[in-house]
Amino acid sequence: MYEEVHKNIFLIRVPLPNNPLKATNSYFIRGDSHDLLIDTGFMGVPECREALDTAMEELKSDPARRDVLLTHMHADHAGLAGVYCGEDRHIYMNITDIGYMNMYFSGDVDEAMLRRYRKEGVPEELNQAVNARFRKGKEKLKLDPRYNGLTHGSVVECGDYSLRLISVPGHCPGNSMFYISNEKIMFTGDHILFDISPNITCFPFIRDSLGNYINSLARSYRYDVKTAFPGHRESGDYSKRISELLHHHRSRLDEVLRIIHEMPGSSAYEIASYMQWRIHARNWETFPIMQKYFALGECLAHIDYLTNRSQIFCRSEDGKRKYYPA
Ligand SMILES: [Zn+2]
User: I need a labelling partner for 44 at 20 to 30 A (CA). Which of 75, 183, 203, 268 fits?
Assistant: First the structure.
């Protein structure tokens, strides 16, 4: 169920059934006065609870002495933070994601997203289905007073280790990695994944998610990393992977630009349907709802990047946005 991947650092694979990510990688650090659990799993998925319960028991972790550290706000990482953090302990997370979660709970994020998606040519049926899904998810996730906001450079101590927050916005507005410099260990969360590319989507109130992500990737080179501990799947060569991810987004940007040149006046929804996706579906129409939504978000992040750099422009036609080459 778990393995010791470094002295007193244990990897727990928390299964995500029916999810292409397969599992969330949770890391447990055994300390002296307290323990630290990095990332958790979905709330409301029994397999996640089972895996973490078993691991915590086998590792003899006292819940009253346990802190939780989150790389970002997504539910497959933050969902169970409240369950596994001790009553008088802390849930550490980048303060930007805490702020964003507050906007999300207030309904501002959903509303802004719905407004935008309608303009981007998304069928109302899909909008409503996604919105209902998010509403359900929201009921399960709660912020509580144990949440403790961190910023770039903040340090969390546990046992022999000092973990320094490296702010890498992109995958989330307050996305973070945690660096143990004397061991050259980086907990990369979902900023750098090795056998899948992290999902970069558009976020309401964030002007350029992909631009932020690319800048964060470029800044990630400066850390000397021997061992990377990612948020999903397997590890690999840190610097090499940064280059691959930069290359991946450059070719994705080229693809979106090519589509807009070939089919000027397309909506974002149409552009997303023309892009290549690595998914087990016959065609765009048969994409599962959430996969369609993720694809659309990724497409919009690339469109925002190109718009912000004046490589394309958008014209409003009958209240709908259409994209043209600049
Ligand atoms: Zn994730």
Answer: 203
